[in-house]
Amino acid sequence: SAFDFWDHVSRPGQPFAEAPYAWFGFTAASAISVWLVAFATSRLLGRLPIPPVAADTAGIGLGIAAHLLVSGPLWDRIFWNGGLHFDAVALPVAVSCIIYLVFRGAFAAAASLYSRRGSKGDEQ
Length: 124
Description:
By secondary structure, the protein is mainly alpha-helical. Helices cover about 80% and strands about 0% of the residues. The longest helix has about 35 residues, at about 90-124. It is globular and about 55 Å long. The mean pLDDT is about 90.
């Protein structure tokens, strides 16, 4: 979100550069709403007898979908001019879930390597 904001407002002559505070409001509200939906969904689904990774991934997907279908157009009307397009849902949701799973896998692998290496170092 921070890079997206900077990328949009740093282009001279673009409408985002002419109204950086409005674009900041849209960006901040969007990021917060995606996080809230993702967090709440993950917590609710985490109470079900499903693997935590499934609950968390569903939270990410529903957070992105809710932004594209509901909160994005709402924040667009409030902070911007209502002219942003939120027409594709499936591809951004799928890509976001895949990226989340890749990062989660990378962190799990790093934690596993660290714990194995740490326990070997403690024995010496």
